[in-house]
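[09:14] KT: can someone run the structure on this one? pasting the chain below
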Amino acid sequence: MNMEEILENGLAALLPVYKEGNVTMIFTGGGEQLLVRRTCKTVLKNLARFYGIDLTAVREHYGSFINKKQGVPIPMAVNLLLIPVKVRKSPLGENDGTFGYVNFREIKQVADGEGGKCSITFRCDKSLLVLVSQSTMREYMKNAQLAENIFLNQHFHGYEETVGRSWENLQESDSKYSARVLPFKKASTKGQKAQLFPWENSLEHSEVLLREYLLKLLMEIIELQRNQALK
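[09:31] RB: done, structure tokens below
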């Protein structure tokens, strides 16, 4: 199974496990568990290669913002931000590793576990016990939120205008395109925030979700325009 096939179902976590060797258990966004006969470090490197990411540079860059050199969250895509977290105590080999990686965007909630551990529940309602306390895990999540904001600002700053222009061009060309997500609406009053969702005042749906929504819409429009050009 290649990396593209794994990512099609979403990625919730990468965990080092011992099953006829030091291999990786992948939790998908749909709740499936897939065994990959590669070490967790190798799977992480393959993910980074897939997204064109230099892991050393990313860790240095985001580590400087959260003032850490270890346990730095790794943004790879809008829906994939990996948090390093300890998941096993005593590896059999010196280089087998104790850390797995949890996707920040797939975390639904965290709760106290026995013996100072923490239980992570994913959006698919599957749970994972990790070897850090709930307070430590929440600190990791705060760092991940900061890294995500920096990532979105650096990579997608200004693309709201691009989405708006592309959408208007499609309407002018009498396209029958219907977005799988709601179309972008401009604010009716100067200085007023654009209103896109019926739950727009909920604190849970932050500006980060707005940016992700706009990015998805832009990708749909680009794909449609590409298909039209090929006809």
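[09:33] KT: thanks! Residues 3-156 form one domain.
[09:34] RB: yep, looked fine to me
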